[in-house]
Amino acid sequence: MTNNESPLKKVCIICAKGTIEDVYATLVMANGAVMEGIEAKVFFTFFGLDAITKKQMNRIKTATVGNPAMRAPGGLPFPSILGILPGVEAGVSAMMKSSMAKLDIPPVDEFLEMITAGGGEIYACKLGMDMFKLEKKDLWDEVKDVLTIGEFYGLCGGENTQIIFT
Amino acid sequence: MAQKTIAGQTIEVNDEGYMVDASQWNREIAAELAKEDGIELTEKHYEVLEFLRKSNEKGETLTIRRVGKSGIVDIKGLYGLFPGGPLKFSSRFAGIPKPASCV
Q1: Is pLDDT at A2 greater than 70 in this prediction?
Q2: 3-class DSSP state for residue A138?
Q3: What pLDDT score was predicted for residue A117?
Q4: What is the phi/psi pair of residue B71, to 5°?
Q5: Of the candidates B63, B68, B84, which has its C-beta nearest A37's C-beta?
Q6: By C-alpha distance, which of B81, B88, B94 is closest to B40?
Q7: A66: left (phi over 0), alpha (psi -120 to 50) or beta
Q8: Residue B73's closest CA among B45, B39, B33?
Q9: Domains delineated in chain A
Q10: How far apart are CA B4 and CA B35, in angstroms?
Q11: For residues B29, B32, B34 and B36, what is the CA-based torsion angle, rounded to 10 degrees?
């Protein structure tokens, strides 16, 4: 299952969206990397910044409108029009979170702590911060730095490095 | 599947070096397996290995989060004990199967 001749050494992950599935895909990939001894650097930008903003990080949601893969429990169809009703998005998001909790997948802040505990690094995008009028103090305390994309690319050098965009 | 002689005992290992039969395990084997990866086991290491073995026996899914909440060591400490593979190295030294878990 492994290619021992030329193993992956570093992943640089860019997360630009703030839904549960996009943020968790990022966190699972970053955490999975450090657990395998692979260096991980994560860059949050645009709506992805919610995942590292103190106020929002544990309140992210799944979109219930415009998400054709969403089905009701048991695989029944979930008409998009239901998704606009008050409380539906919150309910669906709570369900997603509880299914993940059963698999021992932690809330966003704890997940980020697991990644940094393993040496992973978390960065915020300067442009996105300016757009959303965020300051460093609004961000989760362990965000390592606020960078331009150019500066982030500067961290993505080296052999066997992959950049992943979620 | 291969056989390996280690610490004076013959054990069965799979192609990734994980022991096939957890009951063949003992502390000396763990110490030798760890030494192959350049890790000298301390009592703290053994506490983690025992915890993993017990959880595995109970059929629990192993995650670094669970080890972090075990009261033995936090996640940062776990990375410190088993650099580069907090769960995959520790479970190999513990003589249990490689955890099929993403967290």
Answers
A1: no
A2: helix
A3: 97
A4: 90, -5
A5: B84
A6: B81
A7: left
A8: B45
A9: 10-63+79-165 (3.40.1260.10)
A10: 15
A11: -140
Distance of alpha carbon A57 from alpha carbon A63, whole angstroms: 16
- Chain A positions in Cβ-Cβ contact with residue B88 (cut-off 8 Å): 35-36
Query: Chain A residues with CB inside 8 Å of B64's CB?
Result: 35, 114
Q: Distance between CA atoms of B69 and B67, rounded to whole angstroms?
A: 5
**Distance from C-alpha of A75 to C-alpha of A70, rounded to nearest angstrom:** 9
Q: Return the bridge partners of A145, or none.
A: A123
Hey, is the C-beta of A104 within 8 angstroms of any chain B C-beta?
Answer: yes
Which tokens belong to A80?
Answer: 């998009």
Q: Going edge to edge, which strands form the sheet with A121-125? A: A145-147, A121-125, A39-44, A10-15, A161-165
Burial class (CB in 10 A: 0-12, 13-18, 19+), A69: exposed
- pLDDT, one tens digit per residue, over A59-107 is 999 999 988 888 888 889 898 899 999 999 999 999 999 999 999 999 9
Question: Which DSSP string corresponds to B35-101?
Answer: HHTT----HHHHHHHHHHHHHHHTTPPP-HHHHHTSSS--HHHHHHHSTT-TTHHHHHHTTSPPP--
Q: What is the structure's pLDDT at B1?
A: 74
* Interface ipTM > 0.95: no
- Measured between CA atoms, the residue of chain A closest to residue B89 is A36
- Predicted confidence band at B47 (pLDDT cuts at 50, 70, 90)? very high
